[in-house]
C-alpha cells in the first residue's frame, strides 16, 4: 500500500515523519471554519443527548403548560414572546410550553432518525459498492441493474404515497406502534432510497483500488477474497465514507423535518423540529420570533454539519492546496 508521508524538521535538526492521519488532522486544524463548525456540531449533539440534564439545570420542562400567560388568541402576553431568564427562547403559542425544552427534546428524535438512516444506508451502499467493484463481471452487472432500478423511483413521492399504508402494516404486524412505527418507516424508506448513490461512489473507488500493487500482492500470496475486501480494500475507502457521513447526516436531518412538517413523520404529542416548524408557520405573522428561532436552529445544525463535511473533504484530499 502506498501512502503519502510528509516530513518536518524539528528544532534539533532531526526529521520527523507524519502519517496520513496526522497530515489530515493538521490540515483540518488549520481550517478555522471547519474547527468552529465541528465545535458547534459537537455542542449541539451533546445538548441533544443530555437534554433531560440540561433542562433540569435550566429549570425548564417540555411538558409544562403556561396557559395563564396566553391571551385569547393563544399568543404569550409577555414581551418578546416570553423570552426571559426562566424561558431563554420564549414560549410556544397555543400551549405555552417552553420553546428551548421542546427544541432540545425534539432534536433527540430528529437526530435519532438521521443517525440511524445514515448508518443503515451507508452500510448497505458500502458493501454493495465493494462487492460490485471487486468481483465485477456478472455480479457487478446484476448489482448495477438493481441500483439503476431503485434510482428510477421518485423517492419523495414514494414515501408520501406509502406512508399511511406502510405505517398501518407495521402496526398491524405488531412490530411497533404509534410514533415508533412512523420512525421505523422513515428510517427504512430513507435508507432504502439512500444507499444506491453512495454505492456508485464506493464502486468507482474499488475499481481503482483493486488494480493497485498491494491488492495484487495480497492475491498473489493466496489471500482469500474476504481478507482482501476486509483488510486491503475496506480500510482504503474510509476517507470518502467519513466525508459522506458528515454530509448525509444533515441531509437526513432536514428530510425528517420536511416529512414531519408535512404530517408524514412523527406526530404530536411527541416533538421534532419538523413539528415545531409546522406549528411556527401558523404564527409567523403574529409571533415571528417563534418561526425564526425554530427555522434558525435547523439551519444552524445543517450548516454546521455541512461545513464540517467540507473541511473533512479538504483535509483528506491529498491533492488539496490547503
TrEMBL record:
<dbReference type="InterPro" id="IPR050366">
    <property type="entry name" value="BP-dependent_transpt_permease"/>
</dbReference>
<feature type="transmembrane region" description="Helical">
    <location>
        <begin position="233"/>
        <end position="252"/>
    </location>
</feature>
<dbReference type="InterPro" id="IPR035906">
    <property type="entry name" value="MetI-like_sf"/>
</dbReference>
<feature type="transmembrane region" description="Helical">
    <location>
        <begin position="183"/>
        <end position="202"/>
    </location>
</feature>
<protein>
    <submittedName>
        <fullName>Peptide/nickel transport system permease protein</fullName>
    </submittedName>
</protein>
<keyword id="KW-0472">Membrane</keyword>
<feature type="transmembrane region" description="Helical">
    <location>
        <begin position="36"/>
        <end position="60"/>
    </location>
</feature>
<comment type="similarity">
    <text>Belongs to the binding-protein-dependent transport system permease family.</text>
</comment>
<feature type="transmembrane region" description="Helical">
    <location>
        <begin position="289"/>
        <end position="308"/>
    </location>
</feature>
<dbReference type="GO" id="GO:0055085">
    <property type="term" value="P:transmembrane transport"/>
</dbReference>
<keyword id="KW-0813">Transport</keyword>
<dbReference type="InterPro" id="IPR000515">
    <property type="entry name" value="MetI-like"/>
</dbReference>
<dbReference type="InterPro" id="IPR025966">
    <property type="entry name" value="OppC_N"/>
</dbReference>
<dbReference type="GO" id="GO:0005886">
    <property type="term" value="C:plasma membrane"/>
</dbReference>
<keyword id="KW-1133">Transmembrane helix</keyword>
<keyword id="KW-0812">Transmembrane</keyword>
<feature type="transmembrane region" description="Helical">
    <location>
        <begin position="109"/>
        <end position="134"/>
    </location>
</feature>
<feature type="transmembrane region" description="Helical">
    <location>
        <begin position="146"/>
        <end position="163"/>
    </location>
</feature>
<keyword id="KW-1003">Cell membrane</keyword>
<dbReference type="Pfam" id="PF12911">
    <property type="entry name" value="OppC_N"/>
</dbReference>
<feature type="domain" description="ABC transmembrane type-1">
    <location>
        <begin position="107"/>
        <end position="309"/>
    </location>
</feature>
<dbReference type="Pfam" id="PF00528">
    <property type="entry name" value="BPD_transp_1"/>
</dbReference>
Amino acid at each position: 500500500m502506498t501512502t503519502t508521508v510528509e516530513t518536518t524538521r524539528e528544532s534539533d535538526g532531526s526529521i520527523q515523519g507524519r502519517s496520513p492521519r496526522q497530515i489530515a488532522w493538521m490540515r483540518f486544524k488549520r481550517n478555522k471554519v471547519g474547527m468552529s463548525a465541528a465545535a458547534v456540531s459537537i455542542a449541539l449533539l451533546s445538548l441533544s443527548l443530555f437534554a433531560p440534564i440540561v433542562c433540569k439545570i435550566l429549570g425548564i420542562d417540555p411538558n409544562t403548560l403556561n396557559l395563564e400567560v396566553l391571551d385569547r388568541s393563544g399568543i404569550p402576553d409577555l414581551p418578546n414572546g416570553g423570552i426571559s431568564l426562566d424561558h431563554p427562547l420564549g414560549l410556544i403559542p397555543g400551549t405555552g410550553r417552553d420553546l428551548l425544552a421542546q427544541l432540545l427534546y425534539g432534536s433527540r428524535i430528529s437526530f435519532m432518525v438521521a443517525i440511524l438512516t445514515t448508518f443503515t444506508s451507508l452500510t448497505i451502499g458500502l458493501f454493495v459498492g465493494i462487492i460490485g467493484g471487486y468481483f465485477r463481471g456478472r455480479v457487478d452487472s446484476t448489482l448495477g441493474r438493481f441500483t439503476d432500478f431503485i434510482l428510477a423511483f421518485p423517492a419523495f413521492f414514494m414515501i408520501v404515497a406509502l406512508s399511511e399504508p406502510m405505517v398501518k402494516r407495521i402496526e398491524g404486524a405488531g412490530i411497533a406502534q404509534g410514533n415508533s412505527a412512523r420512525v421505523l418507516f422513515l428510517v427504512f424508506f430513507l435508507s432504502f432510497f439512500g444507499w444506491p448513490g453512495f454505492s456508485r461512489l464506493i464502486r468507482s473507488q474499488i475499481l481503482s483500488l483493486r488494480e493497485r500493487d498491494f491488492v495484487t500482492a495480497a492475491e498473489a500470496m493466496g489471500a482469500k477474497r474476504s481478507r482482501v475486501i476486509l483488510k486491503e480494500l475496506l480500510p482504503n475507502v474510509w476517507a470518502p465514507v467519513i466525508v459522506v457521513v458528515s454530509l448525509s447526516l444533515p441531509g437526513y436531518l432536514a428530510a425528517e423535518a420536511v416529512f414531519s412538517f408535512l404530517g408524514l413523520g412523527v406526530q404530536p404529542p411527541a416533538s421534532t423540529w419538523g413539528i415545531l416548524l409546522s406549528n411556527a408557520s401558523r404564527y409567523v405573522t403574529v409571533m415571528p420570533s417563534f418561526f425564526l428561532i425554530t427555522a434558525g436552529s435547523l439551519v444552524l445544525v445543517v450548516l454546521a454539519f455541512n461545513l464540517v463535511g467540507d473541511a473533512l473533504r479538504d483535509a483528506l484530499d491529498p491533492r488539496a492546496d490547503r
